[in-house]
């Protein structure tokens, strides 16, 4: 077939691929569309042609789909944060469930009788203002300084935004204040200069208390730290922010995590609570660098889904790998005999231990281990009945997966934020453990991201 870049085609969007792209066919040839809703007919321009597929950009919708919705953010389709505000929420849940099932079937070779029962993703209780944390980029200098999110299709260009409706209106004045202060300072951003300073702005809010923590991350330039301190004072004085932390990060990898805390003003943490199905709750202290599920209401559904896979007689010993600051382990502690949490970060382990104490939970123990390299992370843990794994997007390391597969636990509960790496790991476990249940959970409405609880049972 003679297709070339720049060619205009009329296409009908059939489905969504994992990752959020639309899929259309042209005389049987697969074409991925970077922005499309299933059911639409579009005119699209080819941007890349390969041997087995092509990529295209939708330039005009010639026939609308029934499932289309009106985007609620003026930055949609410019900002890279959301992909599906133009699709109704029920359809988003359907496609996330289908993408999970198809990925597990294709990559993980999971039996169809399991993937066919996957169903739609469980809905988030909120579809707007659902985020309790947002990480913004600071880029530029002076009047050209911007505070925002990466522009759609770019790894470097930052789109200046007023506020993000996924975080909520609380963010608007904070972003405005930080932008003006950093611009007026004339100090360049870290990405703009080898001697640059301003780097990331993280806003965290507690659904439980309404309190807000701001984490300012800068380069290591000590001569500018006084300016950061002044900014912290301004934010605290305005009354919306109750906790401010300034940390530095020298590493070039641009993640929103400080390496060294320089200054703290107001409180040093905020408190969040997650409710269990029986009406009890678990309280978590959230510090600037702490990992906590970004959707509080969604986390209650996710953790409850994990808890449903456990017995109710407090007989099971559970190992919680990649336990962070104790999120899942503490939530299920009332249903099990013991929880042994394992995590790389010493700070997270200390927080998990403190969280256990503050909740008067005595059957959870936490320790540090390198889950990427150590071949004996499970050493010394007796009678493992259930292993829970909640790894980052890259999935479980082969070293840890090999140890888990021979540990003898009757059940593995894998909490995944990336169906592709979950499927890869499912294929590696096959023969020793088989997938017996899959429950997609929507923690990130309007985005391509999919959370999933996958249950593995020991092979007969």
Short summary:
The chain is of the alpha/beta class. The chain has a seven-stranded mixed sheet with strand order 8-7-6-9-10-11-12. Strands 17-16-15-18-19-21-20 form a seven-stranded mixed sheet, with helices on both faces. The chain has a five-stranded mixed β-barrel with strand order 1-2-3-5-4.
What is the strand and helix layout of this fold?
Blueprint: E1 8-16, E2 22-26, E3 29-33, E4 41-49, E5 53-63, H1 89-106, H2 112-115, E6 133-139, E7 146-150, E8 158-160, H3 170-185, E9 198-205, E10 212-218, H4 225-238, E11 243-248, E12 260-266, E13 270-275, E14 281-286, H5 296-307, E15 317-321, H6 327-332, E16 338-343, H7 346-358, E17 364-368, E18 386-389, H8 398-405, E19 411-416, H9 419-429, E20 433-441, E21 451-458
Written overview of the protein:
- The protein is 22% helix and 30% strand.
- The chain is built from nine helices and 21 strands.
- The protein has helices at residues 89-106, 112-115, 170-185, 225-238, 296-307, 327-332, 346-358, 398-405, 419-429; strands at residues 8-16, 22-26, 29-33, 41-49, 53-63, 133-139, 146-150, 158-160, 198-205, 212-218, 243-248, 260-266, 270-275, 281-286, 317-321, 338-343, 364-368, 386-389, 411-416, 433-441, 451-458.
- It has a seven-stranded mixed β-sheet with strand order 8-7-6-9-10-11-12. A seven-stranded mixed β-sheet has the order 17-16-15-18-19-21-20, with helices on both faces. The chain has a five-stranded mixed beta barrel with strand order 1-2-3-5-4.
- Helix 7 links the parallel strand 16 and strand 17 (364-368).
- The longest helix is centred in the first third of the chain and has 18 residues, at 89-106.
């Amino acid at each position: 077939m003679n297709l070339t870049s720049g060619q205009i085609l009329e296409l009908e969007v059939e489905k969504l691929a994992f990752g959020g792209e639309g899929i259309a066919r042209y005389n049987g040839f697969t074409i991925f569309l970077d922005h499309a809703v299933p059911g639409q007919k579009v005119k699209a321009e080819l941007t890349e042609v390969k041997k087995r597929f092509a990529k295209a950009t939708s330039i005009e919708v010639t026939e609308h789909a029934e499932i289309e919705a009106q985007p609620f953010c003026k930055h949609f389709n410019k900002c890279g944060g959301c992909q599906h505000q133009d699709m109704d929420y029920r359809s988003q849940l359907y496609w996330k469930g289908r993408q999970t099932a198809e990925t597990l079937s294709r990559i993980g070779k999971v039996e169809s009788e399991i993937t066919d029962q996957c169903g739609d993703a469980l809905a988030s209780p909120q579809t707007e203002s659902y985020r309790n944390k947002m990480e913004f980029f600071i880029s530029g200098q002076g009047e050209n300084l911007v505070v925002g999110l990466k522009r759609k299709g770019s790894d470097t260009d930052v789109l200046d935004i007023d506020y993000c409706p996924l975080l909520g209106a609380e963010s608007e004045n904070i972003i405005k204040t930080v932008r003006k202060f950093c611009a007026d300072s004339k100090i360049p951003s870290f990405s703009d200069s080898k001697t640059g300073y301003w780097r990331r702005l993280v806003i965290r809010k507690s659904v439980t208390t309404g309190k807000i923590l701001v984490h300012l991350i800068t380069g290591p330039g000590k001569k500018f730290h006084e300016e950061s301190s002044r900014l912290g004072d301004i934010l605290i004085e305005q009354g919306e922010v109750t906790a401010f932390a300034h940390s530095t990060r020298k590493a070039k990898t641009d993640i929103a995590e400080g390496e060294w805390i320089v200054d703290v003003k107001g409180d040093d943490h905020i408190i969040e609570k997650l409710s269990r199905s029986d009406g009890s709750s678990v309280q978590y202290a959230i510090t600037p660098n702490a990992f906590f599920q970004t959707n509080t209401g969604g986390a209650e559904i996710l953790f409850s889904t994990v808890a449903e896979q456990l017995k109710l007689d407090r007989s099971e010993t559970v190992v919680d790998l990649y336990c962070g600051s104790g999120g899942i382990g503490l939530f299920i502690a009332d249903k099990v005999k013991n929880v042994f949490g394992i995590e790389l970060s010493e700070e997270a382990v200390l927080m998990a231990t403190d969280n256990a104490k503050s909740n008067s939970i005595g059957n959870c123990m936490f320790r540090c281990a390198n889950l990427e390299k150590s071949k004996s992370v499970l050493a010394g843990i007796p009678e493992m009945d259930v292993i829970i794994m909640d790894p980052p997007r890259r999935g479980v390391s082969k070293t840890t997966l090999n140890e888990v597969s021979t540990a003898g636990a009757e059940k593995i509960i894998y909490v995944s934020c990336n169906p592709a790496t979950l499927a890869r790991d499912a294929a590696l476990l096959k023969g020793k453990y088989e997938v017996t249940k899959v429950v997609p959970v929507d923690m990130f409405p309007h985005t391509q991201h999919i959370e999933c609880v996958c249950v593995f049972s020991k092979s007969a």
